[in-house]
Amino acid sequence: MRTLVICVGNAMRSDDGLGVRVWEELRARGVDAILSGPDMPELLDSLCVDRLVLVDAVDFGGEPGSLISARLEELDPIEIRSSTHSLSPIHFLRLIKEITGHPKEVFVVGVQPKSLDLKEGLSEEVERSLSAVLGRVLEILRDGLEAIQG
What we know:
The chain is of the alpha/beta class and 150 residues long. The protein is 32% helix and 19% strand. The chain contains 4 helices and 5 strands, in the order E-H-E-E-E-H-E-H-H. It has helices spanning 18-28, 89-100, 124-143, 145-149; strands spanning 3-8, 33-36, 51-57, 67-71, 105-111. A 5-stranded mixed beta sheet has the order 2-1-3-5-4, sandwiched between helices. Strand 1 (3-8), helix 1 (18-28) and strand 2 (33-36) form a beta-alpha-beta unit. Helix 1 crosses helix 3 (124-143). The longest helix has 20 residues, at 124-143. The chain is globular. 37% of the residues are buried.
């Protein structure tokens, strides 16, 4: 089963830099991952995989730094309030999956941002969630669906 990890973020937008930090940590651990800015359509050719793990700052109305991880189909598009990107990566992946049938499985690992202001560095709340995000991504890579249900 071919798995792709895409980390989405912008290090100049405070907590939106989560994807950049996770990407750096995954690469340091030898995990092959792609870093994307807001233009996910440029990755269209990379999405023909069996399993995709998306890491992003996601406004789902939780406490800053709280974690959400779920299969794409389990996320309520109304509950996912917004993304820092013009076309939410979650909505983009939903559309691509409906049109092409790929990726077959999509897991979303997101963190509620505290701030998306123009500045470098994560808020304390999101910084504290970094190890939990990394742990969740590594669990999904190792265990697949069982990790997301745990």
